[in-house]
Amino acid sequence: MDLAQVLEIASCTDPGMVRSHNEDSIATDAAHGLVVLADGMGGYNAGEVASGMATNVIVTEMRQVLESTQPNQIDPRTNQTIAARLLREQVLRANSSIYQAAQNQPQYAGMGTTLVASLFYDNRVLVAHLGDSRLYLSRDGELRQVTRDHSLLQEQIDSGLLTVEQAKNAQHKNLVTKALGIDPSVEPEIHEYPTQPGDIYLLCSDGLCDMVEDEEIGATLRALGANLKLAAQQLVQMANDNGGRDNVSVILVRVLREYPGARGVIAKVFAWLK
Amino acid sequence: MAKLILSMDGLVLKEIPLTKERTTIGRKPHNDIQIDNLAVSGEHAVIVTILNDSFLEDLGSTNGTVVNGNPIKKHFLQNNDVIELGKYKLKFMGEAGGASAGGDKADFEKTMVLRPQSAARQTGGDALRSAPAAPRAASMPQAAAAATGIADATKTVPPAPPPAAPRPAGQPVGAIQLLSGANAGKELELTKPLTTLGKPGVQVAVLTRRPQGYFITHVEGAARPNVNGQQIGPAPHALKDHDVIELAGVKMEFFLKA
After folding, report:
1. What is the pLDDT along chain B (258 residues), one digit of tens a residue?
2. From the list A39, A177, A226, which residue is nearest B117 (CB)?
3. Cβ-nearest to A39 among B111, B123, B131
């Protein structure tokens, strides 16, 4: 199913005001309903390599497997949708690729990347994430954070050591507890949520949410929701105006109308024809 | 490294660096900081230090723990906090700010991986291991060292990044006064970072407040707004004092308040 008519996508990425390199990578494919954002880490240019590999592998491989499957069907082996299984597999594949490259080439040793990847299908959004890159949802003018960071800070908030207010002043915002390409195996956190026409989804690296308050992000999406491209640029600009200490990347996805997947007889015929 | 300064009646008794993950305070001799005073409970309080952050927790003491005049159960210590235990005072001094800034600052902000995955256990005495890989940012092993309690007074840890820069205080506030239409004469102060103007679906523009000043940008509609009779381009247009904006059939004047 071609989702290019259903999803409006705008993105923007910028090295920020301090860094010379942009270690973030983004990739979008409206036709397949796929958006991926990664924030790389590692010396020299290894961060860019890791995040670039992550977005590339996931988008290319997902595109291929989606061509020949009905993502909304249930996989009898895992009792999950095919989409969830496919996305997990491609994330694991990206993990091995990055890990192998880091093992084989000394200049890439220790590189890794955070990840947030969303697949839109059948009136739902599937999101896989690792680390502190986030997915937000702006629905009916209200912004909510969908993913929960895999970071030391988040764990301290969860265990009650820090309040959200105190966390804003903490010194170790940059320590993530999960990432892609660091270990030979990894388990991404994957969830699925129903979407509604009018929803705006925001994928961003920590360069945005560390520099711009959630309220301001929400206000920007409310004010500029009519012009997605401008909203994406405005968010990056706000991060830079506030100091822009890190690379900042945003992807905005607006759901224009419903997009139910093929079901029942049609789906069966379709599957049979394949 | 953070430290405590113990004093009584304004007299400094000693300085105690927070080198351990758990620093206990109490009257009994096995405490890390022993205060031999009857107002202090045997096991009075504990300070848990994780990376560069220290937390004070009262251990159910008889007379309680007071920070900056307020009784607390659990407290995230900030620079210059004063902990009161009976007649004794403990002043908390955080990292020496600014001294070691410079080049490490950006490095410290770099995203880094921390393992093992459950950091929640660290308060129970479990050491944090730094990821083994080589060329990760230099502050990683340093931060981990602080967490495991390996004291190294010579190491300087970069200071915390300052919170997001506030709007420059000296920047004049802009405002819009409507010149035509039903609400002519009305004034609107532009205090928010973003203010949208116009009719949704017809013509909408946004006024953004930035450190450099105010800008107007076209958001939606077939025609772009006019500034001083000239249609603006697709890019943000900088506004000058007394510029006249025409949008969705309404004229308005932009001006800066003194």
Report:
1. 788 999 888 888 888 888 888 999 999 989 989 888 888 999 999 998 887 788 899 998 888 899 998 888 888 888 889 998 888 889 998 865 433 333 344 444 566 776 654 443 433 333 333 333 333 333 334 344 333 333 333 333 344 444 444 445 567 899 999 998 888 889 999 988 889 888 888 889 999 998 889 999 999 888 899 999 999 988 889 999 999 999 988 999 999 987
2. A177
3. B111
Question: Residue A212 corresponds to which amino acid?
Answer: V
**How many helices, marked H, and strands, marked E, lie in chain A?**
8, 11
CB pairs < 8 Å spanning A and B: 143
pTM for this prediction: 0.70
CB of A168 within 8 Å of any CB in chain B? yes
Cβ atoms < 10 Å from Cβ of A44: 12
- String of DSSP letters for chain A: ---TTTEEEEEEEE-TTT-SS--EEEEEETTTTEEEEEEEESTTTHHHHHHHHHHHHHHHHHHHHHHT--TTSBPTTTSSBHHHHHHHHHHHHHHHHHHHHHHH-GGGTT-EEEEEEEEEETTEEEEEEESS-EEEEEETTEEEE-S---BHHHHHHHTTSS-HHHHTT-S-TTEES--BTSSS----EEEEEE--TT-EEEEE-HHHHTTS-HHHHHHHHHHHTT-HHHHHHHHHHHHHHTT--S-EEEEEEEE-S--PPP-HHHHHHHHHH-
Q: What are phi and psi of A234, to 5 degrees?
A: -65, -40
| CA–CA distance, A167 with B179 (Å, rounded to integer) | 46
Contact yes or no for B130/B144 (Cβ under 8 A): yes
The C-alpha of B9 sits at a distance from chain A's nearest C-alpha, in angstroms, of: 31
Amino acid identity, position A260: P
pLDDT digits (tens, 9 = 90+) for A51-84: 999 999 999 999 998 888 888 888 888 788 889 9
Closest by CA to A16, choosing from A249, A217, A209, is A249
Q: Do A109 and B161 touch (CB under 8 A)?
A: no
What are the two backbone dihedrals, phi and then psi, of residue A37, each rounded to the nearest 5 degrees?
-135, 135
The complex's ipTM works out to 0.74
Contact B206 A161 (CB under 8 A): no
- Eight-state DSSP code of residue B192: S
Least Cα separation, residue B242 to chain A (angstroms)? 24
Tell me if chain A has a CB within 8 Å of the CB of B184: no
